[in-house]
Amino acid sequence: TEYVIKNIQWTTGNNFTVERGRQQIEEYISTWEVHESWLHWSEFLQEEELKYSKKYHYRVCWSMPTRRKPIPRATASVYFVIEISKVKPATLPVEVFFTLESSRLIHRPEQCRFREKWLKDIIESKMILMERL
Questions:
Q1: How many Å apart are CA 83 and CA 111, to the nearest integer?
Q2: Gap between the Cα atoms of 36 and 42, Å rounded
Q3: pTM of the predicted model, to two decimals?
Q4: Among residues of the chain, what percentage have pLDDT more than 90?
Q5: What is the pLDDT of residues 67-93, one digit of tens each?
Q6: What 3-state class would DSSP assign to 112?
Q7: Is 2 exposed, middle or buried (0-12, 13-18, 19+ CB in 10 A)?
Q8: Could you confirm whether the keyword Kinase appears in this record (predicted)?
């Protein structure tokens, strides 16, 4: 069977606020198929003023604490950018992109199925690095 990519209805440029952007990122990541043991928190990082748009940068930090290790040794971050065009009508939805820590590949919510394995791979590579040091 074909997988349907889950997305949300993103706010329009004229209804955007920094907090609304963070809430929508939370709403979007709630559609991801990740095990319930993963915990995350999100934060606004910065606003970037460009000639034809404004970009709002966010980070969602993921970890998998356990009873034995309630403070995880490593975390995995997913970085979101919400872009609002200065030339397109403000009634259009904002553009959203995300990248994973240690990766340059840019994902778009409407074109990408998030994989829990990506988070595991980031944490695993950090653990291997810490053991070598």
A1: 17
A2: 17
A3: 0.92
A4: 83
A5: 888 888 899 999 999 999 999 999 999
A6: coil
A7: exposed
A8: yes
Kindly state the helix (H) or strand (E) to which residue 47 belongs, with its residue range. Answer: strand 39-49
pLDDT in tens, 87-110: 999 999 999 999 999 899 999 999
Query: What is the C-alpha to C-alpha distance for residues 28 and 32, in angstroms, rounded to an integer?
Result: 7
Q: Which residues pair with 12 in a beta bridge?
A: 93
Amino acid at 1: T
What token pair was written down for 55?
């970009």
Report d(CA 130, CA 133) in Å as an integer. Answer: 5
Mean pLDDT, residues 5-16 taken together: 93
**Closest to 10 in 3D by CA, of 112, 98, 107, 110:** 110
**What Rg, from alpha-carbon coordinates, does the chain have?**
16
Buried b (16+ CB within 10 A) or exposed e, 61-86: ebbbeeeeeeeeeebbebbbbbbbee
